[in-house]
Amino acid sequence: MDTHSSRSDMDNDNLSVKRNEDNEKNCWDGSEAEFVDDEDVEEFEEHYSGIKFCYSLNDDEKEESAKILKESISSRQNKTMFKKNIIRTAVLAVAAAVFLVSFILGYGVVNIVMTALCVLVGLAMWYIPHLYLNKNVLYKSFNGTYNVTVYPHEVEVIKNNCKEEKLKEEKWIIPMDETGQFAEKDDLLVLISKEGNILTIPIRAIEPSFIADVQGILFTGTKPTEF
Q1: What is the DSSP letter of 37?
Q2: Do the beta carbons of residue 169 and residue 70 sit within 8 Å?
Q3: Among 170, 177, 168, 220, which Cα is nearest to 199's?
Q4: How many other C-beta atoms lie within 10 A of the C-beta of residue 103?
Q5: Distance (Å, rounded) from C-alpha 126 to C-alpha 148?
Q6: Which of 1, 17, 119, 211 lies at 20 to 30 Å from 63 by C-alpha?
Q7: Contacts from 216-219 at CB under 8 Å and sequence distance 24+?
Q8: Are strands 181-185 and 169-175 parallel, antiparallel or unpaired?
């Protein structure tokens, strides 16, 4: 009996040691813990299903969108074109003066023609950009149906134009990398890319349970602005 009991005790001790070794092997020591790399985050975002919705702007929304677009274009033109146009106008003015003096001194009728041409080019340079800002033209640019998908890293836009439009479908992407601008005006969410593409989203087009998510993504991925 003593021998049998002794063997049983030894077997129990060996089993206990083995269990302790297994527990030590299975016990997490933190050696495999690590932060998620940016690439893994991007991969997650790419597989994120996104928030999708479809809409067409009504007359009031088109009119408000046209006003916002006009302000945006005017602002960008004032910043980029004004100085260039000043220099070009100065060059044309000097050229016109030279041609005019040449005509007065009797060097031919062609000089007065060149003087008039310089004046016309100068006027056109300042006036033509404003033709695009015509309210009706801007208003029509918001016709059609918008299919929008909002991802954490970008907003994908597919615009199906009306039958009379030459370009039947337009596609563009607005990255959520703080290069664009975002504002809320009345019941519209307004998003403008760094290239100047404007997207106006009526809140009515978004399912109520997703409105806060869309607003959060647009706010964190852009620079806030006002119109």
Answers
A1: P
A2: no
A3: 170
A4: 17
A5: 36
A6: 211
A7: 217/51, 217/150, 217/151, 217/152, 217/155, 217/176, 218/150, 218/155, 218/176, 218/182, 218/189, 218/191, 219/182
A8: unpaired
Least Cα distance to 4 among 12, 46, 106 occurs for 12
- Helix ranges, the chain (H): 2-26, 38-47, 59-80, 82-104, 110-131, 135-140, 211-220
| Contact criterion met (CB below 8 Å) for 150 and 55 | no
φ and ψ at residue 89, rounded to 5 degrees:
-65, -40
Q: What is the pLDDT of residue 189?
A: 93
Contact in structure between 225 and 181 (CB atoms under 8 Å): yes
- Long-range pairs of 74-83 with CB within 8 A, sequence gap ≥ 24: 74/133, 76/196, 77/129, 81/129
CB 197 within 8 A of CB 155: no
Structure token pair of residue 114: 């060149």
Contact 55, 201 (CB under 8 A): yes
Mean pLDDT per 10-residue section of the chain, whose length is 227 residues: 48 49 44 41 56 92 84 64 81 91 86 91 77 61 88 91 66 91 90 86 92 92 84
Most distant CA pair in the chain, distance: 140
Cα torsion through 130, 134, 145, 43, rounded to 10: 20
